[in-house]
């Protein structure tokens, strides 16, 4: 009887094994059919990640399965470093008892994390800025209101809170860390952003210059140039998982502004080779786009295009969840490219990059020629021409003066819309291309309102056309973007952080400074009005929360922003920088009240 029962059990076990095999085989075949039936659309380059990053992604996935989604930040895990070499750590990790759903017992995982991994904040250590003074000489001389001046000094003091340097352990054993070694101290944005970021650094530097912290500002540029020397371009941020993309190219503007304050010829002479290398990165290969205009002339412009087509390591679990709505491997691979490319733009994420405003899986960043990116590169061309003249490199100066005129012409031919008085992003379509160039069509301009439509104001080269400038200013004033507490990023409320009702310090500053540079009475008045709205909302939010915020709700004075794939952050590098830059430009009279109006 026992024998018969054992035989039956064996038969049942065998049936279960066969059944499981058939299910598995069917799943594999279905997956293969999906792969075979889809047509790959992604053929761009990929910069491989490191084994350490891949391992930390596995830890990230296991932690999500174990701890759950509540308060889970995937970036935390790829920012951790190892206490021992990767092989030893991996061997210990593989000994964990992993359940069928990918989870581990909470106590086992916590024990592993404590024994084998360092905390995410350990790679950078506090660094006292060598050029910080509690109240610098000639600091914001036109800020006369005592309340505003006291607050400005508090914001100035935040540079000390955000100052860091790479720890000795990173320098000694870089293979154990995702943080990249940098030669000089850094200013971090704050909160979960524990490393230096590329385009954030421009507004950090503008604030440092207002704070008379020239040594710190130059150190940031030195760090960014070191990334160009190693990788050929400035990375999105100083982490191993950011090597596949850059961010809006503002290095030349950082150098230009520092030179204007310091007159340091040697500084710009040593920086020029790196700028030339970065310029080549943005104007060749996948970033370069050729478009034939209505008259048959071919123009070259640039686009964002990350060298990556899998989930972003710092957001791996989020990207996989987003992609789970797609039906096949090819669509997911393309989406991962678009997600990383949107991150390269700095606008992660926005309806600006989406074919369907309610569906993040319709991101199409690589199919868009952006107004702001080409404005930044035009500014780079003008900066290089200026800096080359200063250093006596006349042939380089002539070449980049010519390049700037060509880009201005291209932007006006492809992006400018005279009827609307704005520059619009241009969408590329596969059906409208030849071997040599895309063919321009008016219907491919994205005529929705975004703050980026007005970024060319920031570039002096457009200011010579007074008729165009007056039309742009009028268009901005009637666009609906100017709200009670600043400039909205878009007019579409989707819950994405680079959409309505959020306003961001960089966009306020670029448009305000563009208006000031143009210099008409109307432009100056409008610039001052925007700056005062922005200063007030920052001031009131600071009084209520004790912090500077990454973004603000421009519908309500004193409200910080929300939305996006992570919780609102404080600190905050570029917000501090823009407030100080605005106060330096416009001051604050003694009789003007602070606070919301």
Automatic annotation (TrEMBL):
A single GO BP: trehalose catabolic process
Keywords, in A-Z order: Glycosidase, Hydrolase
Which InterPro entries does the entry mention? 6-hairpin_glycosidase_sf, 6hp_glycosidase-like_sf, Glyco_hydro_37, Glyco_hydro_37_CS
Question: What is the top-level taxon of the source organism?
Answer: Eukaryota
Q: Which top EC class applies here?
A: hydrolase
Q: What is its EC number?
A: 3.2.1.28
Q: Does the keyword Cytoplasm apply?
A: no
> A Gene Ontology MF term for this entry?
alpha,alpha-trehalase activity
Catalysed reactions, semicolon-separated: alpha,alpha-trehalose + H2O = alpha-D-glucose + beta-D-glucose
- Can the keyword Lyase be found in this entry's annotation? no
**Belongs to which family?**
Belongs to the glycosyl hydrolase 37 family.
* Protein name per UniProt: Trehalase
Q: In the record, what lineage is assigned to the organism producing the protein?
A: Eukaryota, Viridiplantae, Streptophyta, Embryophyta, Tracheophyta
